[in-house]
Task: structure prediction
Amino acid sequence: MALNQANTKDGSLVLQGDRVILMQDGVEATFEMTPMVDHFKGTKKGTVYLTSLVMAFVPKSGLMKSLTVPFANLKNLEVKQPMFGANYLTGNILAQPNGGFEGKVKFKMVFNNGGAIDMAQGLMKAVKRAHHASQPAPAVNPMPGAYPAPYPGAYPGAYPGAYPAAAPPQPGYQNGACYPPQPGLYQPPTAYPPAQPMQPPPPYVGAAPPTAPPQTAYWDPSNQNVYIPEQSQPTAPPPPYTEKPKTE
Result:
């Protein structure tokens, strides 16, 4: 709350960096505080402003030229609707450093020209937002089993080697390792020997030796001779001749 620190001109508020949301004139304001400061004595008539930053009251005359209150410094706001008389707004104002006074001030603002309900609703919403913004965000507790800080060797909740419900290793090949076989279970096949290079087949026993391919004979009409290519000599001797006995 700041006393006589806002810019005013001809009984109006001169804004700097904020904007007017609601404005209501014909307001009579009274204040109570201990000890009483001269600026707050008596009933003051003026205009109430609800801006984007503060609530301001600008009297038309007197020692008080302006009274600006940040939303976080407003407490216990209430709107009253009496059966006889105009509606009015009450609450407490907390002093701020270098605001022109100290302590707490209780105020009452009577809206003779109406508008008390709208002003009260707008102020209450602004005060609620300001109080939430001024409170630090609550710390988030880590969930059980999370890793708020590294532990030596493993994260909290970890088990050495495997999970507690892991199945025992089965015989055979597991992740590239071969476990010893267990009786009564299927045994993995043994590894096949490495493939041998292919060798040419052995010669067939009793087969005739290979002969040269036959050559073509031809006849020359000019020489009246027939050309017959020479026959290749056998590489093996012929079998011996045996005379068969004559039968009568």
